[in-house]
Amino acid sequence: IRDYSQESLRSQIGVVLQETFLFSGSIYQNIAYAKPGASREEIIAVSKLAGCHDFIVKLPDGYNTKVGEKGYSLSGGERQRIAIARALSNSPAFILADEPTGNLDEKTSNEIMDLFHELNREQNVTIVMVTHNPALGPHYDKIIRLRDGRIDSRLFEWEIARQQQNQEVAP
Q: Is 51 left (phi over 0), alpha (psi -120 to 50) or beta?
């Protein structure tokens, strides 16, 4: 990894955080932030991939709609989809997703997880998910559990995570 420049590494990694941060500006500017020279067609294409194009075009000013600081005029799911579009705008090989569904309702959370699965399958994007929720296991090929900053175990089947969750819930 030391053989690569910071710029080269950053161009290959998209980041989606639990607390989505949107900048004061338009939706277009927020999505294009990771790739300032992106064409309108590129922004629309990643918005469609992220599942936010349809709700954006229904807004009064579409992609030119201004979002306040942190984007509180949008729902949590809408903000998260814009953050995913921003992460995709640079065509990354990897997306680091840190608890991206933590603040979302179950329906939206499942839609976001399905989207990540589709990105992995259809766009060949490697998704590295950081989560405390073992119920998300069915969406992933490999699970690595960390404890005290070290790898505790490698779980290759999501059923193991599901069994573990069931044991924690059992009386």
A: left
